[in-house]
Design a protein that fits this description.
Length: about 200
């Protein structure tokens, strides 16, 4: 059994607030990313699990900073695209909206799930799918973006020296719709008041 916390232990507060929109430059110019030298192992027991012990994420962020980029993309051991350090990855090809499958070691993000389930009916006019993708797919994509419930949806640049694509219609429309989707997914009694954070006390 875990020992009880001392009666004199001070309480700790966790504070949360409504998600902030991504910075305007990211929406206009895109997020600059590089490929991390680290590889994701989909067979790892921690694959697809959100934990606070992510040394690989910290290392990949440092790689990006050293290269003058904003983020890094991971590849799997066999060279498939996986995800970014704290967001999922999507690309547009024709009438398809594609993202790596969970078997590529990705986290099943909230925004990712929404896009896969509702993209066709959310006015995007695309057929979503989770399929294996490679760097060649990224290089030939019409649009590409990163998604997360915190940062929203932002266009992606595959390399820091060139833009993959401008913020196209899919990125713009999905970015506009994402906040309403996130708000509707929050239980009413846990939703913070507009402009005000919510607090939860833990011991």
């Amino acid at each position: 059994r875990r020992p009880a916390a001392p009666a004199t232990a001070p309480p700790h507060w966790l504070e949360s607030g409504p998600p902030r929109p991504p910075p305007a430059p990211h929406l206009m110019d895109g997020v600059r990313v590089v490929m991390s030298a680290l590889r994701r192992d989909p067979s790892s027991p921690l694959s697809g699990v959100k934990t606070t012990s992510r040394a690989d994420t910290v290392f990949a962020r440092l790689e990006a900073e050293r290269a003058g980029a904003d983020d890094a993309l991971f590849l799997t051991l066999d060279g498939r695209l996986s995800e970014a350090t704290s967001s999922n990855f999507f690309l547009v090809r024709g009438d398809r909206l594609l993202t790596p499958p969970l078997t590529a070691g990705v986290l099943a993000g909230t925004t990712r799930t929404w896009l896969l389930e509702d993209a066709a009916v959310a006015g995007l006019g695309l057929r979503p799918g989770a399929v294996d993708l490679t760097r060649d797919d990224l290089a030939t994509a019409e649009e590409a973006f990163l998604s997360s419930s915190v940062a929203g949806i932002v266009p992606l640049r595959a390399r820091i020296a060139e833009r993959l694509s401008q913020s196209g219609p899919t990125v713009s429309e999905a970015s506009n719709r994402a906040p309403a989707m996130i708000a509707s997914a929050i239980e009413p009694n846990t939703r913070p008041s507009p402009g005000r954070p919510s607090r939860v006390m833990v011991r």
